[in-house]
Each structure stands twice: as C-alpha cells, then as structure tokens.
Specification:
By secondary structure, the protein is of the alpha+beta class. The protein is 29% helix and 24% strand. It comes from Coilia grayii.
Length: 404
C-alpha cells in the first residue's frame, strides 16, 4: 500500500490512529490536523510511530523557534537576498502541484554570504517552504483534492566551482537538513536540467544530507529535458524559456516577475570582506624552505580544492603532478598544473580548485625559499571532491625541503 489516504494497509491505518492519539496534545497547534498531514510524518519514518511522533514534536519546537506561522507575513529577507538569491514559484504541474524553480548559474554565493547572515539565508528558505505549503493548501481548496507536495526544477546551466565554495556548501547542507527534518514528503519530484560535467562532484557533496526517499525523487535529465518537462507540465504553465508558452505580461519568456535569476552582488551590499574560516591544519615553513603536500587522485574528474591563509606575510604557492607517492622531487622535476605565484594570503584568505583530468599524485607546494629572514605559518584545508558516492578525502603526506 502507498501510505496515502485511501490506500492504507491495516497496519498503516493502525499506525495513523496511534500517532493521532500520541500527539493530540500538540495537534491543535499543528499547521493541519488532517490524516494527509499526519501521514507525511509516518511515511518519512517508514510508519514507525515513535519516530514519527518524535519528528513531529521537534518540528513544532522548530515552528515556535522560527516563528514559522507568521514568517510569510511578518518577516522580510534583507534586500540583497530579495534581489540576488535566485528562485521562484511559477505555474503548476499537470496534477496541480506548485512548481518551484532554482536557477543556479547566475548566483553569486560568495557575494551573498559576505552581505547577509547564514541565519537570514535559512530563514528565507523557511519562508519559501511556508509560502509553498500555503499555496498547496489553496490548490487543495481550488481543485477539491489534496495537494501537499511540489515539483522543483533545478536549472544548472553555468554551475561552476564558485558555487562549491565551502561556506556556501555548508550553509546549503544546513538548508537541506532543515527541509528534510521539517517538511517531509513535501517534494513530489525534482528535475535537474542542463547539468554540466561538474554536477556529479556537486551532488556528491550534498546527497548524504538527503533521505533515500528524496534521492529517489531526483531526475537528472539529458538533452531531451524540454520534452520530459512537457510530459509533466502543460505548455500554458511552463515558461517559454523552458519549452512552454508562459510569459510575463510584457512577453518576457523568463517570467522574471515570478522567478528571480540572481546575479553578481554589488560590493556596496558587503558587510564584511571575508569569512571566518576554520582551517584543519597548520604548518610552519622555515625561512629559505618549501613544504609539499601530496594527494593521490585515483578518479578522473575529481576536484582538488584548497584554502589557506598565512600570518603576517605572503607565501608562494603552486600545484604540480608527479608519478609516485612519497618520493620527493624538486619543483623543476614535476609537471606544473597551477602556476606558482606569491599570494598575499596574510591579507585575504586564498582559495582555489583544480579539476584533475588524469589520475596521479598532485603536489601542493608552499614556497618560502625566497625569504631569508622570516619563517611562515600556514593554516590550510585541502579536500579531494570525488565525482561518485565517495566522501571528500583529506588524507595527504607532507614533505618539507630546504632551499628548494
């Protein structure tokens, strides 16, 4: 049985009655008291009544803490989020569910996070979820049948490494966790369109925060994505830019009055110039010396990502490739893949990435050979982002050399 109203097994029906009895003290304060509502929590916990009760009680505490009941009417995001964070509801699918669009490419994650707090981002997503739930309720009234989930379309054209900036990914995973914990069964299906080659790396960073049930609802579409969307969405409800007939009143095929497309954040919005980053390693490099970090990359398409800062003075940095792990080589004996240069990482933290097209031993080299007076202290974090189900790797070996 599906676990939905009208299609319950005897055991599922019993679980529903048990849950209703267990939460009767908080049910009047819940967004809904219907069977449809309670079944969402049961399905999310495979009809384990105790786990569903715990989840729902935690959600009610969440609603109280975030003022979720009034967030759509009494809270407004900062202007920079309103103007430069993409997304919007536009149209309905063939079953009447609202459609939400996220347009990732134009978004400036670093600019946004230097201009607003993490709490404001999360609150803006809570507001979106509450707004969409209210729209589902309105659709239920209009259509005379229960609508309690949405269709999402992720437009990934232009997705790049700047979108995988670690503070932004950390915030996004918090948003996903919030969504999974507090809006169960709110997603009907998610279509990913125009995914670039880096998509597997990006998805691998966040998929561990998604339930198996949510992952089953994600469909990565190929070149025929317009055709697939048209199977689920009538042309009159689909923006023209996505293969339908819907436009704004002025004929805009992107429907910008309903979907925000992000964009570069002007520096006038910045409230800080850099993020406070927690680094995982610290190393001291003697004057006239260099320090090499070795990372063995086995999977083509993996991304090597680094971030570092120094105390008081600059440092040289470059990335090389060599054949064997653990065998020290001079810089001139290795293949240079990221040009060595001196970075003012004592003023602004340095961050970068490299897509490793070939397996090999990649060497991150910190160069202090030009300094005959001062040693340097480097704080750094390095990760290998895999394009499959593996978690990011951080293991390395280090080699320090004098005068090299």
């Amino acid at each position: 049985m599906s676990g939905y109203v009208g299609n319950l097994s005897a055991k599922q029906a019993e679980a529903l009655e048990q849950l209703r009895e267990k939460v009767k003290d908080i049910l009047p304060q819940c967004p809904s008291q219907s069977d449809h509502f309670l079944l969402r929590w049961l399905r999310a916990r495979n009809f384990n009544v105790q786990k569903a009760e715990t989840m729902l009680r935690k959600h009610m505490e969440f609603r109280k803490h975030t003022n979720a009941d009034t967030i759509t009417t009494e809270w407004k995001p900062p202007e920079v989020i309103e103007k430069h964070l993409s997304g919007g509801m536009c149209g309905y699918d063939q079953e009447g569910s609202p459609i939400w669009y996220d347009v990732i490419g134009p978004v400036d994650p670093k600019g946004l996070m230097l201009s607003a707090s993490k709490q404001d981002f999360i609150k803006s997503k809570i507001r979106d979820c509450e707004m969409l739930q209210k729209e589902c309720d309105l659709q239920s009234e209009r259509l005379g049948r229960n609508i309690d989930s949405i269709t999402m379309i992720y437009d990934l054209e232009g997705l790049g490494m700047r979108h995988l900036w670690k503070p932004a990914i950390d915030t996004y995973t918090e948003v996903l966790t919030m969504f999974e914990d507090n809006y169960p069964e709110g997603l009907k299906r998610l279509f990913v369109i125009k995914a670039p080659k880096i998509f597997p790396v990006a998805y691998n960073l966040v998929k561990h925060f998604l339930s198996e049930n949510t992952q089953r609802k994600i469909f990565v579409l190929g070149a025929n994505w317009k055709e697939v969307l048209q199977r689920h969405i009538d042309p009159e409800q689909l923006p023209a830019v996505y293969g339908g007939k819907l436009t704004d009143p002025d004929g805009d095929p992107r429907c910008r009055t309903r979907i925000k497309y992000g964009g570069q954040v002007p520096r006038s919005y910045y409230v800080r110039e850099s993020m406070n980053v927690k680094y995982e390693n610290v190393v001291s490099i003697s004057r006239g010396s260099s320090h090499q970090l070795e990372y063995e990359v086995l999977l083509p398409g993996s991304v090597l990502r680094w971030q570092f800062s120094t105390e008081e003075a600059d440092i040289g940095f470059g990335v090389f490739v060599k054949a064997r792990l653990g065998e020290w080589q001079r810089a001139a004996q290795m293949k240079e893949v990221v040009h060595s240069d001196r970075y003012n990482s004592h003023l602004v933290p340095e961050m970068g990435s490299l897509t490793c097209t070939e397996p090999g031993v990649y060497v991150l080299r910190f160069d202090n050979t030009y300094s005959f007076i001062r040693s340097k202290t480097i704080s750094f974090t390095v990760e290998i982002l895999h394009p499959n189900n593996q978690s990011p790797s951080k293991n390395s070996s280090s080699i320090e050399a004098s005068g090299q």
